[in-house]
Structure formats: structure tokens, C-alpha cells
Amino acid sequence: MTISLSNVRYAYPDSPDNIVLDIPQWSVAAKEQFFVHGPSGSGKSTLLNLLSGMAKPLGGELSILDQRLDTMSPQQRDKFRANHIGYVFQQFNLIPYLNAVENIELAAHFSPQKHVAGLAQEIAALLSELNISEVDRQKPTTHLSVGQQQRVAIARALINKPELLIADEPTSSLDEQNRDSFMALLMTMVTEHNTTLVFVSHDMSLSRYFSRTEELSNINRAVEAA
Ligand code: ADP
Ligand code: MG
Fold first, then answer.
1. Sheet of 19-28: strands edge to edge?
2. From the CA of 41, how far away is ligand 1's center (Å)?
3. Which atom of ligand 1 is found nearest the CA of 38?
4. Which residues have their alpha-adjacent CB atom under 5 A from ion ligand 2?
5. Ligand 1 atom at shortest distance from the alpha carbon of 42
6. Distance CA 177, CA 22 (A)
7. Ligand 2 mean position to 97 CA, how many Å?
8. Ligand in closest contact with the CA of 38
9. If you take atom 21 of ligand 1, which residue's CA is the nearest one?
10. What is the pLDDT along the chain (226 residues), one digit of tens a residue?
11. 59 vs 128: CA distance, rounded Å
12. What burial letters (b/e) apply to 165-185, b meaning 16+ CB within 10 Å?
């Protein structure tokens, strides 16, 4: 299993009585494209924070690629994330004054052992696949359209060849046409790169792109109490 959770519980440190997640059992197999649907505030981003090791469960077992994240130190989780997990955020989180290539180089910097040769060529190949022209690669990313920025964010998330890609409502600022082309490109990229994908959104219409869809409320027991 790429992802395996057993009795995972989480509450934020500043509100320890509000259990946001209580997941008895959940798993995702390698190369699955998994869509988790839930309304705003239901705990989707919190779940992704646990999967990426940015937060640590209060209890239970959480394994990614057969490694126990719940027993790792924060430093070990950071290293694990850099080596194995790509992340596409809701608001892109590109560094605005850097261009596309520089943004991706920065991400590659955190996982140096994955780039023994030819980082520049790897970046160029990804940006070509994602239809970012040579001219647009040299512009500060604020000068790109939102659709282009989100494609650069995919390239940045994939440059370290992560086994697992996590996407947190990445289409919410895109119009319908940009959303459809973004989804088609994302699915092509994860299929070609043999990447496992966990994608969360409140937008149920996106589920048609995925091999599996689950309501967060079906895996999270904490929902009723909230
Ligand atoms: P979603 O991504 O589905 O909109 P979140 O995971 O962001 O939901 O939030 C789930 C719950 O956790 C909400 O009740 C929210 O208020 C709470 N929450 C989110 N982030 C924090 C935080 N940093 N500190 C305390 N509570 C938080
Ligand atoms: Mg969220």
C-alpha cells in the first residue's frame, strides 16, 4: 500500500477537544488516482497535512510507502516529504519574483540525490509536457496566467519524481476551461510518471477524472461530532 491509516486521530494543538479527524481504517494502493470529496471545513487539508508529514497524528498508525510517519521526528518527516511526496496547493504558492525554472530548481534543491544528472533538461522536459513556452519560462511567475501558474505548480510538484502526489483543491481559482485542461494534463502526468495521486476538493464534478472517489465523511468518524 502507498498509504495506510489505522485508528488515526488528529486535533489542532490550540483546540485539543475538537477532534478533526478520527479515521479507523483507510488505504490507497500504488498508482491509484484517489478523489476525496468533502465540504469546506470537513478536514480535507488536515488529512493532507498528515499524509505529507506536516502534522503528526495524536494516535494511531500512519504509513506512507511502508514507512511509519507517526514514529518519525519532524526532521525525518521533512526529509521523507522532500524525497517521496509532491504537493500542489490551492493557491499555487509559487515564489512570485522567480520564474518558472527557478521555482522548480528551488524544489529540486531539497531533494538533491534525485538529480544526479541533467536537472536543467528534466525541468525543460516537464515544462514542455505542460505546454509552458520557452519565453514564458523566463518571466516572473506573477506575469503568467493562473492556468499557466498552476501548470508550473504541477511541474514543481513532480520534479523530484515523487511516488505520491497530493493536491489540495488545485482547481478552485481556475475557470471551467482552465480547470478541464488542468485536470486532463494532471491525469496524463500522473499516469505517465506512475505517480499515486490523492486529490481533495469540495467540487464533486471532478470525480469523473478518478479511478476511486470517497466521501471524507465515510472514512472520518469525527465528522458527526463536529
Ligand atoms: P477543509 O480543508 O476540508 O476545508 P480543514 O482541514 O482546513 O478543512 O479544517 C478542518 C477543521 O479544522 C475546521 O474545523 C477548521 O476550523 C479546523 N482547523 C483548520 N486549520 C486549523 C488550525 N491551524 N488551527 C486550528 N484549527 C484548524
Ligand atoms: Mg482545505
1. 19-28, 3-11, 59-64, 67-68
2. 6
3. 3
4. 44-45
5. 3
6. 37
7. 26
8. 1
9. 12
10. 899 999 999 999 999 999 999 999 999 999 999 999 999 999 999 999 999 999 999 999 999 999 999 999 999 999 999 999 999 988 878 999 999 999 999 999 888 777 667 899 999 999 999 999 999 999 999 999 999 999 999 999 999 999 999 999 999 888 898 899 899 999 999 999 999 999 999 999 999 999 999 999 999 999 654 4
11. 43
12. bbbbbbbeebeeebbeebbeb
101 C-alpha to ligand 1 centroid (Å): 33
Domains in the chain, start-ordered, CATH in brackets? Answer: 3-218 (3.40.50.300)
Place of cell 541533467: 118
User: Quick one: cell of 125?
Assistant: 522536459
